[in-house]
Amino acid sequence: MTNIGMAELTSMHGMSEMLLRYHRIMGMNHEQLILLQASIQLHDPMEIEEATGFSRDTVMELFSQMSELGVIRFNEHKELDYQDLFETLKSIEKRSMPFRERLTREYSKASRTNQKHVGHVELVPVKKGVAVKLTDGTFLSIKQTKDLSNELIMFAQSMKEEDLQRFNRNVHQKQEVQNDDHRYEEYED
Question: What are the helix and strand counts (H, E) for the chain?
């Protein structure tokens, strides 16, 4: 376990919890889960074999199966890449999170850091309807698209057209004032 940072080291328990929660999504069976959980907690091959009751051959076969599934990777030292596993689990966690919760978290963080968030999307016309493309090039899942659709309907039903138009006029007026301020700056000597 050489390639994981201190922050992640302190959250090995969190990684174990995520693994327990998402192992089925990853296509893992119970034996693979037991082995990977033991590998997170114990780092000595003999201790892992003793704790799981798996023979060395079984351990190697299970690791091979998980590698073929794309669940785990090994680093250049042929050690389990815990950082990669952690990132995979975090990615699954994000995809499994209700879209509104994910948007709220990322929007809040992005407003402090000036970064893009899951709300920066591209609407793509498709054969039947419109798909939502994320900044990483992937499409929003069907479940998340339905969640987003429900949130948009809720917004549309709760907002009056006049209120929305007033808000938009205020935004345009603020933009015009900012643009005017920049124009005068350009011509000052």
Answer: 9, 2
